[in-house]
Amino acid sequence: MSESYAEEETEESSFLRKYLKGWSFRSTNPTFEQGEELEVFVTGIRDGNPVARIGDTVLEVPDAPAGMVDSRVALRVTEFDPSGYEGRAEFVEKVGESAF
């Protein structure tokens, strides 16, 4: 390998590191802390409770008003089990409609 090629490779990798700085891949199993607030879509009903699915993580929202399925809502996480990627959240407010 020539010296100039090695220098070029270093410049390219340096550029790539700078370009990707701060980037991260989203997990299909995000975790949440108690008290954390987020905006999500209510995606369905499970065992009579509205649920929001974020990837494979499921948050039940038992106090959400009727008719919130397919609505964008603000929630506050009240409990979360990171080993099962499930939790509960309280409804804060409706913030939008579905794009469907």
How would you describe the overall organization of this protein?
With 100 residues, this protein is α+β, with helices and mostly antiparallel strands. It has a domain at 37-96: OB fold (Dihydrolipoamide Acetyltransferase, E2P), CATH 2.40.50.140. The chain has 1 helix and 5 strands, in the order H-E-E-E-E-E. It has one helix at 3-20; strands at 37-46, 49-54, 57-60, 72-81, 86-96. The chain has a 5-stranded mixed beta barrel. The longest helix has 18 residues, at 3-20. It is elongated, with a radius of gyration of 21 Å. The termini are far apart.
Quick gist of this model?
The chain has 100 residues and is an alpha+beta fold.
Note poorly predicted spans. none
CATH topology-level fold name of the domain at 37-96: OB fold (Dihydrolipoamide Acetyltransferase, E2P)
Proportion of helical residues: 10-25%
Provide the structure class.
Answer: alpha+beta
Choose one word for the global shape: elongated
**CATH-defined architecture of the domain at 37-96:** Beta Barrel
Per CATH, the superfamily of the domain at 37-96 is Nucleic acid-binding proteins
Cα end-to-end separation: 55 Å
Strand order of the largest sheet: 1-2-3-5-4
Number of helices: 1
Gyration radius (Cα, Å) is 21 Å
Pattern of helices and strands: HEEEEE
Give the biggest sheet. 5 strands, mixed, barrel
Given this structure, which CATH class of the domain at 37-96 is correct?
Answer: Mainly Beta
- Proportion of strand residues: 35-45%
Query: How confident is the prediction overall: mean pLDDT?
Result: 85
How many β-strands, per DSSP? 5
